[in-house]
Write a structure and sequence with these properties.
about 30% helix
């Protein structure tokens, strides 16, 4: 923990901020920005997946087959300890005109929930949207999994 020497004793910086010893007019925005960056880094993949899905709604649809389903344990260190989550990934293959691959991910708190969600999709045919400028880029939209 960060500390500051104050009046012949060491005091944690957080206590100084809470007591107003350090000018808190700039501390709050810094702490808030750090929190926003932390959350964004944890969920960046899903934010980008959602944005690509919105953009890809105008891309031409192509039939694909989900061939690989997997669940991976993820451990993220935070100031309060370790957060354990499970990343379920559906990997699909499509031809346009060459064989291409893509994936769709979803995060779960429990491994059993991730396995239960992913398992039924193996071998399933789905519609993906392919970037007309780059056929190696595709998006499996959440709506297509329903």
């Amino acid at each position: 923990m960060n500390s500051v020497l104050a009046a012949d004793r060491t005091v944690p910086v957080t206590q100084l901020i809470l007591r107003g010893t350090i000018n808190d007019w700039y501390a709050f925005p810094i702490v808030l920005a750090g929190g926003v960056v932390g959350v964004m880094s944890l969920y960046w993949r899903f934010i980008m997946q959602r944005l690509r899905g919105i953009h890809a709604s105008n891309w031409p649809p192509v039939s694909a087959i989900i061939d690989v389903v997997s669940v991976a344990k993820q451990e993220d260190q935070t100031g309060k300890g370790t957060i354990v989550t499970y990343l379920a990934t559906l990997t699909y293959f499509y031809r346009n005109p060459e064989l291409q691959t893509g994936d769709y991910c979803r995060l779960f708190d429990e491994e059993a929930d991730a396995q239960a969600w992913a398992a039924p999709y193996k071998g399933r045919t789905v519609t993906v949207h392919v970037d007309p400028r780059d056929p190696s880029r595709s998006v499996l939209r959440k709506e297509e999994l329903q």
